[in-house]
Design goal:
- The protein is of the alpha/beta class and 424 residues long.
- The chain folds into 3 domains: 155 residues, GTP1/OBG domain (Spo0b-associated Gtp-binding Protein, Chain: A); 166 residues, Rossmann fold (3-Layer(aba) Sandwich); 85 residues, GMP Synthetase, Chain A, domain 3, CATH 3.30.300.350.
- 21% of the residues lie in helices and 22% in strands.
Length: 424
């Protein structure tokens, strides 16, 4: 069974809590605080696996939760960091935020990609000793790990995409020129999943994808084509296969125009890809049929008369494809889409839950998970960015809550791993 879109949830591990501990040793008076920091929570990473060709496994396991970091220990010992959770996906998988559709990562390279970051460990009480506060009896909890509802969307990585109506001979062509062995039969929709074939020309090689047959209306959801048009989007070159014999009562000219219309309706960028026309089934077509279709195509597209069944003309087609690919850009990769400060602000307006705790005289802590991504994007060295952060604290009610808790001028406020002095 082929699956190319699934939804899953991931949760990175929380950081371990900091420890509250005091040095205890014979003959050593007032040893001082020695509580260690908590360990880091595990990240959730995605990595490409070429042994996978479908997302079907995610239909049966939809939740992935990384371990939490261990809490800090006495004698200034940091808690153990949690191992990462690695999720293997087919190469070419896009990872998107299910709520917004924002692209988080394109898993097309060889390096693992961190999608959900584990929380940092909380600071132990050894970090809070000052001349004014020599015996801090508090520590900070670990920070929460990222949590996402994700959509995984597979877009195959192929140099060449074969498109055309069902039963025009795409499977026969890819079988004739590569080691791929798709099911081939004389009925529509024999191919129910995209098939990749590696084709070697001298010392070069490229990947060709047999995309399941499109039909009229595919871009609007009709037939199987709507499910697989996305797999053509990464291709560098399109080979448009047409049954020039019209043996099934079809009209090659109409078929050619209709498929190009569907490509254009699905994506203007896709319809603008370089295209080669392969007039297939020439072994059972008449000379008049071939000449008529050749005249229709004219000089707009490179044109090859082939027979996948007998391999007639396939070598010339493949050699031309290899030559064209030398001058084309590499397979398309997608860039992650970061959220702006304004988008983060807007997204979290209705979720601004926070808590203000007084940990010690002159030391206050703010708990607000929604602040983490905003704080990560704020440059404290930049005046406008800092002013934005202050407006968020004021508009969310955090400043009012601190004042209600009794904060005074020059007291310390801690928000995650950022600390600042309160100035009214």
């Amino acid at each position: 069974m082929f699956a190319d879109i699934v939804k899953i949830s991931v949760k990175a591990g929380n950081g371990g809590n900091g420890a509250v501990s005091f040095h205890r040793e014979k003959y050593v008076a007032s040893g001082g605080p020695d509580g260690g920091d908590g360990g880091k929570g595990g990240d959730v990473l995605f990595v490409a696996d070429d042994n996978l060709s479908t997302l079907i496994d995610f239909r049966y396991k939809r939740k992935y939760i990384a371990e939490d970091g261990k809490k800090g220990e006495q004698k200034r010992r940091t808690g153990k960091s949690a191992p990462d959770t690695i999720i293997k996906v087919p190469r070419g998988t896009l990872v998107k935020d299910a709520e917004t559709g924002r692209l988080i990562a394109d898993i097309s390279g060889n390096e693992p990609v961190i999608v959900a970051h584990g929380g940092k460990g909380g600071k132990g009480n050894m970090n809070f000793a000052t001349p004014r506060r020599q015996t801090p009896r508090f520590a900070k909890p670990g920070f929460p790990g990222d949590k996402y509802e994700l959509t995984l969307e597979l877009k195959l990585l192929a140099d060449v995409g074969l498109v055309g109506f069902p039963n025009v001979g795409k499977s026969s062509l890819i079988s004739a020129v590569s080691a791929a062995k798709p099911e081939i039969a004389n009925y529509h929709f024999t191919t129910l999943t995209p098939v990749l074939g590696v084709i070697k020309v001298d010392e070069k090689s490229f990947v060709m994808a047999d995309i399941p047959g499109l039909i009229e209306g595919a871009s609007g959801g009709a037939g199987l084509g709507h499910n697989f048009l996305r797999h053509v989007e990464r291709c560098r070159l399109i080979v448009h296969v047409v049954d020039v014999s019209g043996i099934e009562g079809r009209f090659p000219k109409d078929d050619f125009a209709k498929i190009n219309y569907e490509l254009e309706q699905f994506s203007i960028e896709l319809s603008g890809l370089p295209q080669i026309v392969a007039a297939n089934k020439s072994d059972i077509a008449t000379e008049e049929q071939i000449a008529d279709f050749c005249s229709f195509i004219g000089k707009k597209y490179p044109f090859f008369v082939i027979s996948a069944a007998t391999k007639k003309g396939t070598a010339d087609l493949i050699n031309h494809i290899a030559a064209v690919l030398d001058d084309l850009p590499p397979v398309k990769l997608y860039q992650a889409e970061p959220l702006s400060l304004e988008e983060l602000d807007s997204k979290d307006t209705k979720k601004r839950v926070f808590a203000v705790n007084k940990l010690d005289d002159g030391f206050y802590e703010v708990h607000a998970e929604w602040l983490a991504p905003i704080l990560a994007m704020v440059n404290m060295e930049d005046y406008e960015s800092l002013q934005y952060f202050q407006r968020v604290l004021r508009s969310s009610g955090i400043i009012d809550a601190l004042e209600a808790a009794g904060i005074q001028e020059n007291d310390t406020v801690s928000v995650f791993d950022f600390e600042f002095e309160f100035i009214n």
